[in-house]
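Case study 2.
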Amino acid sequence: MIRSRRIGMASFYLGWLTANAMAANGAAPLSLNFQNMEVSTALYALADHAGRDIIVNDSVKGQITLRLNGVRWDQAIELILQAKGLERQTIGKVMHISKRDELLGQDKQRFEAGQQRQALVAPQVRAFPLRHRPAAEVRKLLEEGRLLSDKGSMLVDPGSNTLFVHDIPSSGDKIKQFVESTDRPLRQVMIEARIVEANDFFSRELGSKLHFARVPDIAHRASTLAGWRDNDTPGSTADHDGLSAGVNLPIQPPFGSIAALFRASAGTLIGLELQAMQAEGQGKVVSSPRLLAADRSEASIEEGSEIPYPRSRPHRGSRDVSSVEFKKAALSLKVKPVIAPDARSLWIEIDISKDSPNYKQSVLGAPSVDTKRIRTSVQIENGGTVVLGGIYIDEQHNLRNHVPILGDIPLLGALFSSKTKRHSRRELLVFITPQIISRS
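Prediction:
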């Protein structure tokens, strides 16, 4: 049996509760001094002070003694419930107070009743044609989320990319909401990569040029060397003092390689610097691939060759069997973009590797393979550029200059010829510029 009582404000002042300042909504702090008061009476008094309706089960018994200063009414009720092992259930504006085991028993009864009702409901078949995501992938997500009932099952039709669900209506409604929220077009990212081989001078100076040099000077110098006319030079952005606003975080490691992040406003300047680099003979753009990748999906590109390696293995009762195996010696680039929730920036996982044959270290005529790799993850502005370096290419050339005919005479030819050794060192720089494609 459940009883409901309301305690008037008159009894509120009879020594049970003293309020320093009472607001109309009961939000003002209270000072409480209860001495051996019935728990139900204390709960009624606090609810009456707050203007709230309350129902207290008859099983709630016992007395409580407490002294509190400067607490809200809801905090006082919560402290009483914790001290007496009680639970509160709010239905609309009505508070229902009961023992903890009673409330758990009621929840268990409601759950069992719901299970019995579900057992009487016949399953239905629903078809969910998917437009943007594979049906098999959505099915896997549903299985991991355990949205099906005990009677539920799923079937995928790869041809029409349709997911068929056989389940009770209540579970079918949940699955429908899940499918509608999941089957949305994935955002795409256009990734422009420029792979550059440049000398040490260019790799050391690029970051400082864009960070410290004046924008008009860079644009004029690059446009002149690349054959641009003054009125054809692309626009650029600058601060009011004329300094470049394109660099976000230039980093110059002590060993000389460059690693930097540039804002989207520096894209034109970077392109002009690369054109000037090629015009001055400081380097060359080896490759300029463009990759289109979905959000959180990996895209890759690879360029190179395969080196044959002869292999022989013993065979029982006969001579060795020869075969040829191939090993890649290529330049590969792998990127995985992750778009930020605000779509203003994105994270990119970058994996760059360069494998090149080394004919100076060969075994049985097969060269060894030198492997160099960079793997990193960066956060970059949409349309910005990240520059990675640190992969060096060392080359040594033996040159011989001689006078025709005289330089080929044995012994005396040394007087008419000269030999020089030239060492060159280039750095492989990778410029990566991601651009989020608008859904429109």
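The CA atoms of residues 107 and 113 lie 10 Å apart.
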